[in-house]
Description:
Blueprint: H1 5-13, H2 18-31, H3 37-50, H4 53-66
Pfam families: SSPI
GO biological process, one term: asexual sporulation
InterPro entries: SspI (IPR017525)
Amino acid sequence: MNFQIRDAITANVQGDSSSEFRNTVEDAISRGDEHLLPGLGVFLEKWWKASSADEQQAFTEKLSKAFQN
């Protein structure tokens, strides 16, 4: 079987509104289930590819600060 997780996650959320995406992310984080992490990774990858260099820089600075605590 040729199962592509990126394709499956994309198909599952295609057409979702911003509030639906927010709910999905908050639900995945609140559950704390590690099996949900690949989905969040796909979200990050899609966001990264659609972001400007300035947005990426701001994100990585914030991420760096979050892991310093």
